[in-house]
Automatic annotation (TrEMBL):
Protein name: Cryptococcal mannosyltransferase 1-domain-containing protein
Entry coiled-coil feature ranges: none
Keyword tags: Glycosyltransferase, Membrane, Transferase, Transmembrane, Transmembrane helix
Transmembrane regions: 39-58
Taxonomic lineage: Eukaryota, Fungi, Dikarya, Ascomycota, Pezizomycotina
Keyword Transferase listed: yes
Species assigned in the record: Aspergillus pseudoustus
Amino acid sequence: MPIPMRVLETCESILDGLSFLALTALRHLSRFHKLRRRLLQFLILTFVLWSTIDVILVRRHFNEEQTHLDYKPPERQRIFIASVIRNNERSLPDGWNEAVVELANVFGSDNIFVSVYETGSSDATKNALRELDKSLETNKIGRRVITSDTGPHDEPSRDHNSGRPPYIPQLRNKSLEPLYDLRGAGAFFDRILFLGSVAFTTQDVLSLLNTNYGTYTAACSFDPLNFSALDGLFALRDTDGYEPVMQKWPFFRSSRSRDDMKSMLPVRVRSCWDEMVFMATEAFYSSLGIQFRGVPDGLAEFRLEASECCLIHADNILSGRRGVYLNPFVRVGQDAPRNPAAHPLSSWFSTWEIFESVWENRLRRWFSFPNMARWPLRRRLSRWESEDDNHKERGDFCLIKAVQPPAT
């Protein structure tokens, strides 16, 4: 009997040990489920609080945007207005001419010069510009209004179908020719206003002029309702040099640009362009004399292209000193004036839309890899630069893949 008793005792001990282990495992498993449930509750609470704070802060900034506007004209500002126009019959007679002339009442007719270069219009744009020329003459405003029968297909161009560089940069440079002619005559200007054929008000111009309290190298207007416009989309780069991560508010990948947009402050960017752009004249007057340009022909052969509106900022050595800003308050477009006082941004976004856009922006940033997407462009750029020590492109962040191969 002693031996079976020992065996029985041993078996009982083993069973007790297994039972203990099983009970311990069950207790830990129960604790794990509780921990997992608590973790899930914590994550949900964090998500809700994070989203609520986001919406509250953004809504507050939207509601306070009117306090940032300042329409007071600065003292003794001389403005050179440069405009390139083609096929804008609809917009020009509908208040554009009058709005341009009205600027003389703000700055003084002696402090304004209007340079318009029109080319190849097939509508009544030329007639509307002739009327503008008469109005400027009547109001004793300096001007040069040129109309031409040539168009993109009548000039040398690498891509006739798109009408992109080098033809468009040539037109923009022609609109600036009076700036240099007047300098030779002793007349200098403080700012250049690059103006498209959009509806605008004098308040829009003054608000843009006073961007960041007047301290900037360039300041651009903003049309969020037509964000995919060709020039604006190709030229807009955030402070890290990236394209917008999405085509709706808050747009940007860079934390600095994105936070400025969410806070309704002048948005720091690396380059921008829209239908109204102010630029300081120092770089144009300097010995280097920056001009609009396209990418070198060699890069074009590698099927790389860039907007002249982005390259002008890359070439401007002052861009990094006083900054390039997108002004979220100056919202002008093709159809009607979008003056912030009449069209507050807060009326365009519901609480749900703010929540949705903020999280869409986060998810796009978290799950997209811009450096990987731009790697083929950088590889082509490196190949071109390796061909010659003189091959350099300052506007590497402006480069995009050409839509079509270069014409041969």
